[in-house]
Amino acid sequence: ASSNLGIFALSDAMLADRKITVTPIGDLELSTGEIIACDPLVTGDDWPALSRKVKPGHYPVSLYEAQGRVAAAFLRFHPGTPVRWELATMPGQDVATLKDDEIFGYPVDAGLGSFMDKTAMALMSAAQHKLKPDQNYYDDVLAAEFAPNQDRFVMHHPAAGNASNIAMFWSGWGDGFYPSFWGLDAAGEPLGLMTDFGVLENAD
User: Fold this and answer.
1) DSSP 173
2) What is the pLDDT, as a whole number, of residue 175?
3) Is the pTM above the cut of 0.90?
4) In what order do the strands lie in the sheet with 21-30?
């Protein structure tokens, strides 16, 4: 999967040559800087945030799309091209324990991935608990928000009047298990967080 990290070094012309399009979808509110990356519809409010924190703020999210699918999602904190990448982990995970073909990441069972602040997860969980027994959060809340974007993505606000939002997007070809990577600068500070959905191979 890490071979796809090369897409961030490609020029606009090289991306176009590979038929990869970049779609900005809006800014994500990170009120605590503790980021959750997950399938938003199957992980509960006890799903942990990633171990690395960032400075609270508003940060843009872009989707890299290819073959009619979301190939990667990128949450950018600072401009620039990462000089190295680090597998994103949650507390208790150690990359030194992984075998050659193993990764840390998150499972997808509803065809969606997401980035959110941990406070947004609590808000969405509360909103889900308010649904009637015959209601479904995707069908009754999210579907209308996804529709204008060809069902590919949405910046969802789980609580009306609250700035906390969740970047939700198609997860590549659908259900599976997907890794995220921190893109770091020369000083080891994060420039961005990318989730790879396995649509590309060697950034192509």
Assistant:
1) T
2) 96
3) yes
4) 21-30, 57-66, 69-76, 190-196, 180-184, 84-87
